[in-house]
């Protein structure tokens, strides 16, 4: 079918989400909110745009996202703002501004904007579900945050997910390691990829994040941070691994995992979905950022969190062929009214107030047309109100999943409708 000619479309790398797909989004967000609630998190909402300095100092000037992907603009008051490319820096900015009691545990669902080359699983606007904990560096929190993510992936039906983990150390051990790594790159400079041959000096750690073969080859022969951690960072990492083992969560040490932002310290992790294509298979990632609050002008405050891309979660579910019904909340009831009488309006309201997800047809369309809409609506039961029913003070109930509804349909007194429907829906 040729595409309709319309004057405006959603910008490149963005998408509209409509039903029935939007029901899956709703399901994912609801399950995430429920998980976060169980783990003691409360919702945080921050503006979609921030002073560009929040990201410059937050995610780091040298990060790929800051250098190549930010949406920066000047408003009419000549202030320089940026659309948020990720959630963490804004949440930490809000933490510093409002000084909530610590440990502060916040979750969010937010769009994030990155000027990427659009492809499946990589968009210019994507959505993240995430959590952040500020005010403790207890390794038990690292374990808790990872357990939340891992349990969430299970709850949405994903089975082929692996957890990769590493430690980025702290200033002192990382400083010494960067010196070693720089010496390695100096000797092997000509063998790095075109981009990093030029700029590896600006931030040698970024080369570890490069997926191109020449950089992978050079770094795999070089020193790894995990072998050069100071005693404190090593002890922290060991406690995290021990905690994960005690919860039965498998992880794989991934020494090249440095993640894309400059704020990470100590624990870093990523969840990859094996059912997805390698380049876009990270469905979630996060880690500690014990220096970020200071970078943004706050008091020294430890932090840790993760973010997970909604679009990638749905792609991973589709690739694993997980049943969509697990996420979809469908309508319970559909009211068909051929009389145009207020009785239908009253009945629909009564059912909604009683807690049933109920929809109806409008405009007094024919019985056949209304039945078609009812069938498409995904509702379990259709409730029919015709002149006969109104005269008798009754409703006809039809099971929309039943093939021989003529046989199975039943008439029920209006006064008994709520209890009868409640009963039928549990069957
Ligand atoms: P991130 O790894 O950049 O981390 O993004 C988190 C997740 O968002 C990724 O694992 C991926 O699922 C999804 N994602 C990222 N970029 C795109 C894109 N262009 N299109 C589609 N999905 C994408 C962060 O953003 C950190 N703030 C996570 C964090 C929280 N670290 C500590 N706390």
Give an account of the 3D structure.
There is one protein chain. The chain has 427 residues and is an alpha+beta fold. Helix content is 39%, strand content 20%. It is built from 17 helices and 16 strands. It has an 8-stranded mixed beta sheet with strand order 1-5-6-11-10-9-7-8, sandwiched between helices. The chain has a 5-stranded mixed beta sheet with strand order 13-12-14-15-16, sandwiched between helices. Helix 1 packs antiparallel against helix 5 and helix 5 packs parallel to helix 10. The longest helix is centred in the first third of the chain and has 18 residues. The chain is elongated and about 90 Å long. The protein starts with 20 loop residues before the first helix and ends with a helix. The structure holds histidyl-adenosine monophosphate. Histidyl-adenosine monophosphate binds next to strand 6, strand 10, strand 11 and helix 12. The site of histidyl-adenosine monophosphate has 26 residues, from strand 6, strand 10, strand 11 and helix 12.
Number of strands: 16
What is the average of the pLDDT values? 95
Low-confidence regions: none
Count of DSSP helices? 17
By secondary-structure content and strand pairing, the structural class works out as alpha+beta
> Could you give the order of strands across the largest sheet?
1-5-6-11-10-9-7-8
Bound molecules: histidyl-adenosine monophosphate
Cα radius of gyration in angstroms: 27 Å
**N- to C-terminal distance:** 41 Å
Strand content: 15-25%
User: How would a crystallographer describe the biggest sheet?
Assistant: 8 strands, mixed
